[in-house]
Design goal:
Rossmann fold, 3 domains, 13 helices, about 30% helix
Amino acid sequence: MTFLVPQYDAIVFAYGASKDSKIGLEGEDKPHVYSARAFVGWYNGLPEYRDLNPDLSAGDTAVVVGQGNVALDVARTLLSKIDTLRKTDMTEYAIQALKQSTIKHVHIVGRRGPMQAAFTIKEVRELLHLEDVNFKPIPDKLFPADIAKLPRPKKRMMQLLKTGSPPRPNATKSWSLDFLLSPTSLEWSPSAPEKLQGVVFARTCLEDPFSPQSKVHSTSESVTIPASTLLRSIGYKADAIPGMPEIGAIFDSGKGMIQHDGYGRIIPVDTQGDLEENLQTGLYCAGWVKRGPTGVIASTMNDAFETAEAFVQDWRKGPKKRARHGGKGWEGVKHYAEVKGYKLRPVHWQGWKMIDAEERNEGLQKGKPREKKGTVQEMLYAVQDRR
């Protein structure tokens, strides 16, 4: 990190939230319990999750803890027809694993109610429109008495959830939104300690059931949902990159964010003297590592615009401290690596275009948009000279 910074006039940290939050249950690291983030990364072809190999044939019921869009994406993937998935850019290895899946029912569980759920209309609608899949109706008591009086976004969501989808008598799969439940423990088979057989929840209650910001409390009543697979989707967290303190960046581990001035300028470790001068270091942040793991693509995009505007304002004020170091960009990094004996294998824009073309060509042969390469080695092989 320290050899990168002097070579550039500006560096933007925008690497997102790479860790998922855990529920904190005993046995959560056993087989058949997965991170929803890792599961999505697995079927989307992220190399770090290539070897996840989820076992989806241990039973017929999955529980997804969390009610954000990622949770709904996971449920939609588990319930969709294989022929539908084949037409997407989902990896072939994931399609083959999902083809062997025996999961027929998915519970999407949250500790609060419909009014507090984090998912969006688009994601719910896609699930409701799945072929050969039934939706279990939500009890009327969980909805406000007069939905028409709600603000338009909430009104549309409540109307959609209350209407649900028409019963499909011949459906072979189903899903439900289970509200007011908080996971407390896992149940394992007495004869096979590594086989999940249920998730125990405590019922919760809301101080104000129909307020989007209502606080939630646990009760003494418990409910067990039989399940063979558990996926947690309760939030994400950014992690610090090694070397941050050395370049003057402060990472708040509690919040999972880089300390900044509110606009994306990273506040250095040593802020003695003129803060305005100290902020002219050429270090910026954007996205979830700046704002925390909240918001959809549109809000994160606007956040990035804000950081870009801060950089432009700073640039107009004149050269930064680091610009006076004689930085040479990539050439400077390459020279440093050669001196230190590091073996770098850069993939430039033309190399990326080669990977893209090969993925598209392989996908075309299989009748899909692309066939993603699931390992870094496969990507590097696509850009090497094979003449």
